[in-house]
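Tutorial sheet, problem 5. The two components below are modelled jointly, 299 residues in total.
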Amino acid sequence: MEQNHTEHVDHFDPVASKIGMWLFIFTEILLFGGLFIVYSVYRYKHPVEFHLAHQELDVTIGLINTIILLVSSMTVAMSITALQTGNKKLTLIFIAVTILLALVFLVNKYFEWGAKIHHDIYPGSEFLMSLSKGDMLFFGLYFFMTGLHAIHIIVGVALLGVVFAKVKNGSVNQNRFSLLENGGLYWHLVDLIWIFLFPLFYLIH
Amino acid sequence: MSEHKNHISSYKSHIVVLLSLIMLTILTVTITSVHLGPFNTAAAMLIASVKAAIVLLYFMHLKFDEKIYRFMVTLVLAIYAVVIIITFFDYLYR
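Model answer (structure tokens):
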């Protein structure tokens, strides 16, 4: 029996796997952190253009998307509570709701970007090239940073989809929920980044 | 192993956290719609930082998990803060 045991060593270590997830999150924080510094420096150099350009953005859509992300952050946190208390069905429902909210966020983003592009505002457009340097920088950063954030949302949806399947087949369960916890951490990170993107792009004066 | 240390957040606490985050969001929108000059950005960033702290502590569970995670996050945020300060000293005084 003892020999058998050594052959099937279980390398499950929830603390280490969470440390790994946090290390990855730090690289993401520094990636977006660098972009926030770029934004701050350009805004410091072109205050008037940044102020005028930001008025093109729709605060209402931004606010709705903020609330969608905050609610989805709560549902993913609740799915962890549900799994820890052994309610598999509720866990699946909460993960599904989170994915659904993420898709609603992306649809909103699609319409928001669509309206901008319809008004000939996109990186490299003739209209944007005719504007001042500050406007170009503002919209360049707007498309790049919200775009990079949207890619993170898509990755988050894929990740939560995997977690959903694994909870369903039982390999992620009440005793081994690290994957759900780490998927949740990634989702909260996406929310965390948006918490700063929203005021900087939509609300600045 | 350390089964007793596994803190399970209640549904109620999640709802309280969400409501406080939404209230802070609405507060930011209201504050920035009033003209306060440079204080607008300062207020918006301050509230965003409070919201980020709430997400980190409660949703990301730093308040209840092993201290090692909290230590790591604090260290990284401190490094980031130093980078911001150095960058701005450069741009303000060049």
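Marking note: Chain A touches chain B through 42 residues (CB under 8 Å). Full credit if you identified this.
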